[in-house]
Amino acid sequence: MNADERQAVLVYVRDLAAHEKVRVTAHAHQEIVEEEISLDDVFSVIATAMCWRTTLSTAVARAV
């Protein structure tokens, strides 16, 4: 998967989360409860997520 494809997936997932069109499995719900994380926290993290490889590549390119 190239950087553009990763970015497209992230945009898609962000859109799903923004519209609360995400299903949580029973196991994920159990983990969320055990870690005392709210679903709003999960949506917030998704909303601010960046493509790690894209971000890393950009940082390395700037450093060189």
Topology pattern, helix = H, strand = E: HHHH
Instruction: Provide the gyration radius in Å.
Output: 15 Å
List the domain count as a whole number. Answer: 1
What structural category arises from helix and sheet content? mainly alpha
Tell me the total number of β-strands: 0
> What are the low-pLDDT stretches, counting only 5+ consecutive residues below 50?
none
Helix content: over 70%
- What does the largest sheet look like? none
Describe this structure in words.
The protein is an all-alpha fold and 64 residues long. It has one domain (3-63). The protein contains 4 helices and no strands. It has helices at residues 3-18, 26-34, 39-48, 52-63. Helix 1 runs antiparallel to helix 3. The longest helix is centred in the N-terminal third of the chain and has 16 residues, at 3-18. The model has no long low-confidence stretch (mean pLDDT 80).
Brief sketch in words of this structure:
With 64 residues, the protein is mostly helical. The protein contains 4 helices and no strands.
